[in-house]
Amino acid sequence: MLGHGTHYALAAAAQSDNSFEPGLAVAEIPSTFAELWLVDHLLEVDPELGRAALAQELDQMVLVAFNATALARYEQAAYAARAAGQALTPERLDELCGAEFAKVEADAVSDEQGLRPTTWALMPHFVHERFYTYAYVFALLVAAGLVSRAREPGFADRYEQFLARGGSGSPDELLAILGVDLAGPDIWNDGFATIDRWIDGVE
Questions:
Q1: CATH number for the domain including 162?
Q2: How far is 44 from 48, CA to CA, in rounded Å?
Q3: Would residue 155 count as lying in a domain?
């Protein structure tokens, strides 16, 4: 919440009511970055506490990277079924959701109570903001990539400028302030490299 709060406070001071609120793709980046940056800092100043925080964060990363992706693909499948004229009954939505989680979990996870297919019914995101869950995956990888760059000279100033822009530009324009090219591989490679480094540290 600290990341969201800082984002909104700086954007509110610099933007109008029309340009204040960040768009879907950018909204989760500050919150995720704040969490990951704190963990990275703790690993330096208090390695024992840092490793405990990192273990919890890595569990969350697995949840985001795999489950949120499955939910985004479920939502795509649900809209495709509706576009093809199929009724979106609870049974149909269970089938679509269960199929996407099966691709992720295969035989590695046992769903003895059969609850996984009904995960769609627990997510208010599908009602208040279509395709929101993809933003969690997007934010995770961008934020992890930014952690690898956060100690570069001038990063703090650029990051503050990014937050103050709120929703006044496209994701490309806003992240360009931080030197991020969304069309290129660098930020994604940096994100995965940061996660790999943390996994190696825990091991």
A1: 1.10.1370.20
A2: 10
A3: yes
Pick from 1-15, 54-68, 105-119: least confident = 105-119
User: What is the pTM assigned to this prediction?
Assistant: 0.85
For residue 23, being part of any structural domain is answered with no
Residue 58 above 80 pLDDT?
Answer: yes
**Domain boundaries, position 195:** 2-17+28-202
From the CB of residue 51, how many other CB atoms can be counted at a distance below 10 Å?
Answer: 15
Name the domain count of the chain.
1
CA angle 77, 83, 84 (to 5 degrees): 90
Residue 63 in any domain: the answer is yes
Please give the pLDDT value at position 127.
80
